[in-house]
UniProtKB/TrEMBL annotation, chain A:
Protein name: Tryptophan synthase beta chain
Family: Belongs to the TrpB family.
Keywords for the protein's UniProt record, in alphabetical order: Amino-acid biosynthesis, Aromatic amino acid biosynthesis, Lyase, Pyridoxal phosphate, Tryptophan biosynthesis
Catalytic activity from the UniProt record: (1S,2R)-1-C-(indol-3-yl)glycerol 3-phosphate + L-serine = D-glyceraldehyde 3-phosphate + L-tryptophan + H2O
Keyword Transmembrane: no
Residues in Tryptophan synthase beta chain-like PALP domain copies: 64-389
Lineage of the species this protein comes from: Bacteria, Pseudomonadati, Pseudomonadota, Alphaproteobacteria, Rhodobacterales
GO MF, any single term: tryptophan synthase activity
EC number: 4.2.1.20
From TrEMBL, chain B:
Lineage: Bacteria, Pseudomonadati, Pseudomonadota, Alphaproteobacteria, Rhodobacterales
Family: Belongs to the TrpA family.
Pathway connected to this protein: Amino-acid biosynthesis; L-tryptophan biosynthesis; L-tryptophan from chorismate: step 5/5
Keyword Nucleus carried by entry: no
Oligomeric form and interacting partners: Tetramer of two alpha and two beta chains.
GO molecular function list: tryptophan synthase activity
Catalytic activity: (1S,2R)-1-C-(indol-3-yl)glycerol 3-phosphate + L-serine = D-glyceraldehyde 3-phosphate + L-tryptophan + H2O
Matches recorded under Pfam families: Trp_syntA
UniProt keyword annotations, A-Z: Amino-acid biosynthesis, Aromatic amino acid biosynthesis, Lyase, Tryptophan biosynthesis
Residues of the active site: E49 (proton acceptor), D60 (proton acceptor)
Protein name (record): Tryptophan synthase alpha chain
Enzyme Commission number(s) from the entry: 4.2.1.20
Gene Ontology CC terms, in alphabetical order: cytosol
Length: 406, 263
């Protein structure tokens, strides 16, 4: 697809917040000064050793980083191909990669003197991480969550409440993640003075996609160092699931300029990527459009109206994807595939049975693709899948799908 | 001179503020909506803002969100919005029509195709909420080139350093959003708005219309007293949502326009 290969895939975004044609700052005038402020503050923090020293300290002692790079021996044997490693971000405090990014944004909010934190959440993992860090720093926290998701992710709703956050069920639109994001933006437009919007993925207007990526890149940086130490060389294959794409961007970004590393993002194929549109695979089944502050691939109808994603995983059913993924897709640097609900469920059980690890339904999608791919690869192929979340939150959904009652 | 410029010049000569109404195209259905829009000039409306429905109206409160959903459920599309403008223009060649909404349906149709079709249908201006000056090359510049006014929003967060950027590439009038917030929320008092209107008028040299949260004839009169125009949307839409017939919706609009024009 690409007719010109850039010298580096890691220099984006440009000064307008764009990755090729994707990204940008498609927000209302009320918000524009706020995101310009945020950008200026982030640019300052990025080069401030004091900022990163504070991050490192919290990552180490509060989150539990570095997360292990674990050789999944029985899974490797079972699949009979590539040597499979799992990057164990599910062992982080709060059970997913989301907290890597939340810490960065909350430290930034503190530097900006903001006292009220708002967030959107789908599966509830980003909401829990935000509620957690707000409790840690004594900040007011309001989490917007689609009413549909409040229903299917009850344990996380209760966790957020225990942590002192206010959970606002969103009934507007279709009452899922995209509507939660709309509602958070509406809140931000209303409370401009004291409020910081902590976005949970590599989407939204510039500088969010770049900033969230930078905070999540700790995943890829650690993986690089750990693999060098374990195997003395870089991995051959990286696989991660994609909702908005933050765990994937975090793993991928430090490897984008190593052409020998094959990189694969796995979207949620729901009931199958076809014209029924009962899936959340924006790249495989969508086309470019503008939503939530950026241009990216979106699920939409012929009139440019946004469609609802579907996935068994509440963390993946977002109709968009981070703009940098859209660019990497069009450049051909990263491959994007999709797996169905049923395939993810089977992979969920495979991980439980072979490795004693109950994965979240989101990384179960990555694992489902690994289960297809690994057997086709040679023994010496070093494959890393991002185990970006644990499955405690999903046991009710899985029980229901498997026909058992808890 | 564009229809918008002509209208503001005429009102200025009469010493009147403009009354700008906002309704969603296709709410509650195409025919009723067209009948309401056709009745607006006789009810005293000077400038018509017609909403282009979108699934994800990030800057709108519940009233306009639901209006968009009703319109979409009734089969409204961007193409049919233009068709509605064309029908309106059959008997009215003077009342300016401004399409207001979000960028994605336009981007999806194709900017070039949209701009040409809008001009051809008789549209005069555009307000696209999620296109700040930083994204002017997307739609603002092509729209200007085609002879459409691109009307900008200015807000309480638009400080003096940003105002020149907001003033660039814009024409017709400036829509001053009186509060930080979404449509249909509380309004600012005329006393608070007056100095802001002056500030924006000085920086842009354009008429300034004030909207967001104006719901009653009293508020309409108050704002009209300090600005070049007043915009009312949610309050009209709430009447449509309540199932009022066209005559009664237009009677309410008339009470608003009379208050504004008497100010
Ligand atoms: C464990 C887990 N993985 C992945 C995601 C999807 O987000 P992203 O694609 O930004 O990593 C979520 C979102 O809730 C999640 O909880």
């Amino acid at each position: 697809m690409n007719d010109t290969t850039p010298n580096s895939y890691r220099t984006g975004p440009d000064e307008r917040g764009r990755f090729g044609i994707f990204g940008g700052r498609f927000v209302s005038e009320t918000l524009m000064p706020l995101i310009l402020d945020l950008e200026a503050e982030y640019e300052k923090a990025k080069t401030d050793p004091g900022f990163w020293a504070e991050m490192d300290d919290l990552w180490t002692h509060y989150v539990g980083r570095p997360s292990p790079l674990y050789y999944a021996e029985r899974l490797t044997e079972e699949l009979g191909g590539a040597k499979i490693y799992m990057k164990r971000d599910e062992l982080n405090h709060t059970g997913a990669h989301k907290i890597n990014n939340v810490l960065g944004q909350i430290l930034l909010a503190r530097r900006m003197g903001k006292t009220r934190i708002i967030a959107e959440t789908g599966a509830g993992q980003h909401g829990v991480a935000t509620a957690t860090v707000c409790a840690r720093f004594g900040l007011e926290c309001i989490v917007f969550m689609g009413a549909t998701d409040v229903e299917r992710q009850k344990p996380n709703v209760f966790r957020m409440k225990l942590l002192g956050a206010k959970v606002v069920p969103v009934t507007s639109g279709r009452a899922t993640l995209k509507d939660a994001m709309n509602e958070a933006l509406r809140d931000w437009v209303t409370n401009v003075e004291n409020t910081f919007y902590c976005i949970g993925t590599v989407a939204g207007p510039h500088p969010y996609p770049a900033m969230v990526r930078d905070f999540q890149s700790i995943i890829g940086k650690e993986t690089r160092a750990q693999m060098m130490e374990r195997e003395g060389r870089l991995p051959d294959t990286l696989v991660a699931c994609i909702g908005g794409g933050s765990n994937a961007m975090g793993l991928f970004h430090p490897f984008l300029d190593d052409p020998e590393v094959r990189i694969i993002g796995v979207e949620a194929g729901g009931h199958g990527v076809d014209d029924r549109m009962e899936h959340a695979a924006s790249l495989t089944g969508g086309r470019p459009g503008v939503l939530h502050g950026n241009r990216t691939y979106l699920l939409q109808d012929a009139d440019g109206q946004i469609l609802e994603g579907h996935s068994i995983s509440a963390g993946l059913d977002y109709p968009g994807i981070g703009p940098e993924h859209s660019w990497l897709h069009d450049m051909g640097r990263v491959e994007y595939v999709s797996v169905t609900d049923d395939e993810a469920l089977a992979a969920f059980q495979l991980s439980c049975r072979t490795e004693g690890i109950i994965p979240a339904l989101e990384p179960s999608h990555a694992l489902a693709h690994v289960a297809k791919l690994a057997p086709t690869l040679p023994r010496e192929n070093l494959l890393v899948m991002n185990m970006c979340g644990r499955g405690d939150k999903d046991i009710f959904t899985v029980a229901e799908a498997l026909g058992s009652k808890i | 001179m564009s229809r918008i410029d002509a209208k503001f010049a005429a009102l200025k000569a009469e010493g009147k503020a403009a009354f700008v109404s906002f309704v969603m195209a296709g709410d509650p259905d195409y025919e009723t909506s067209l009948a309401i829009v056709k009745g607006l000039p006789a009810a005293g409306v000077d400038v018509i803002e017609l909403g282009m429905p979108f699934t994800d109206p990030m800057a709108d409160g519940p009233a306009i969100q639901l209006a968009g959903q009703r319109a979409l459920a009734g089969g409204m599309t961007l193409g049919r919005v233009l068709e509605m403008v064309r029908s309106f223009r059959v008997d009215d060649q003077t009342t300016p029509i401004i399409l207001m909404g979000y960028y994605n349906p336009i981007y999806s149709m194709g900017v070039e195709r949209f701009v040409a079709a809008a001009k051809d249908a008789g549209v005069d201006g555009l307000i696209v909420v999620d296109l700040p000056p930083e994204e002017d090359d997307e739609l603002c510049l092509p729209a200007n080139a085609a002879g459409l006014n691109f009307i900008r929003l200015a807000t309480p967060t638009t400080d003096d350093t940003r105002l020149p950027a907001v003033a660039r590439n814009t024409s017709g009038f400036v829509y001053y959003v009186s509060i930080t917030g979404i449509t249909g929320a509380a309004s600012a008092s005329a006393a608070r708005v007056a100095p802001e209107v002056d500030r924006v008028r000085k920086a842009t040299g354009l008429p300034v219309c004030v909207g967001f949260g104006v719901k009653t004839p009293e508020a309409s009169a108050e704002i009209a007293g300090v600005a070049d125009g007043v915009v009312v949307g949610s309050a009209i839409i709430e009447r449509i949502a309540a199932g009022e017939d066209t005559a009664s919706v237009l009677a309410f609009v008339k009470s608003l326009t009379e208050a504004a024009h008497g100010a």
